[in-house]
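Entry type: protein chain
Record version: 2
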Amino acid sequence: MKMRSKIIALSTLLILQSGAANAAAIDDEVAAIANEKTDNNRVEIFDPDKQEPVKTDAELREEQQRLEAERQAARKKIEEERKKGRDEITGKVPISRNPVPPDRSTKPEDVAQPPVDRFEPVEQKPVEVVEPPVEIPNPIKNYSSFAEITQAVNFTPLYIPKKSGYTITSMLTINNLAEIRYSRKWEPSVSLHIRTYKRAPGEELKDISGVNGVKWRINVVDDVTVYIAKIDENKHVAAWAVGNYTFSAYVENLSFAAFYSFVSDELVDLSTHYFVGS
């Protein structure tokens, strides 16, 4: 019995000595490894307690969804930057109910620049200069008295005395031509226009009646050649010249016979008495 106890004690001693030797060897090996130099002058020692736990399928799916959401947000941001660049090129301004003032801190390199090849040179057309229209002064001027119209043309126009039954309604000039308009006292519908024009020395004789397209009849009254024409049943015209003056008469609402008699007996007679030597 004692022998068996001795054997057991001896065996235990040998085992302890062997374990201590092995532990010393292990410690020496760990120290040697710790003293080894790597490229980074350090050695990472594997620690099973610090190992990350294995993720479950649900956690992996959640992480994949998160990554996909981040990718979608990045694509959206890129598309917004591209659209912003296109709007700047085309001149479109996004409408916002609450406009936000631009960020002045944005750097130039952060703003999407439009592609250079999108701009094409525009053909420059010459500017057409439009000249303002030249305003032609009105040659017709009205006067309120016989003295004013006489001073304006610098001669005395042919005048019909009141005893003839005609009253002046208006007086006007057309350039250097004087026209006096009358109406008949007992026949207000009768309208008579008498024109007078003084020719310059050497100026050729010309018609001043302003009536065209009529058939003129030529009559001689007191050695004065009178041209007279019928425009229609109620309108007639006559023209003649005495000395340096040219005259014309136009009437409305009077018969041709009455007009011819008035021109021959009164108008030509007045002109030969007052303008023959002028």
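Comment: The chain is about 35% helix and 20% strand.
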